[in-house]
Amino acid sequence: MNFLAHIYLSGDDEGITIGNFIADGIKGKRYLKYPQQIKKGILLHRAIDSFTDQHPTVKQSTARLHENYGHYSGVIVDILYDHFLAKNWSEYHPRPLAEYVEEFYELLRSNFQILPARIQRMMPYMIADNWLLSYATVPGISKILAQMNVRTKRVSKMNFAVIELEQYYDEFEAEFTSFFKELIDYSSKRLKEL
To answer: 3-state SS of the chain: helix, strand, coil percent to 5?
Structure first.
């Protein structure tokens, strides 16, 4: 899953939310140096990624992209799934997406010092371009995929994946909806265990 899903699956705890958001930049046992709730968020992120990577529905989505994008297919599906979460946000959360993401950006600003350097560098761009809100539209996702392609030195060709998104839109959305119900249940149980 991508940023929005990880944030959403953290619940209302700010420490867990920060940990879940920064987890990709925290390798190995480095998470142990963080406060307890942030540690929980990092471990939750890792559990979500493992569950997602092994799930047959997600594998079905990535298989549709594999011929054109190889090992980048999983990254693309993470982004596409965030699109469907953002697009259908009102089915998952009572607060409007715009308010929710603005509150998250404020959480990042007020905890800037604890964020890893890579996140500190990325954060101004994320907020200025309002990445999380832009996920809700196909043009927004197209822009995100183009930015990701640049980050891979244009090797991934992710910018073209919007073609498959539009071509198989209903299939991707149905897969996301089915999978995300299971992921919500799994994350909730995992959080209680942590």
So the answer is: 80, 0, 20
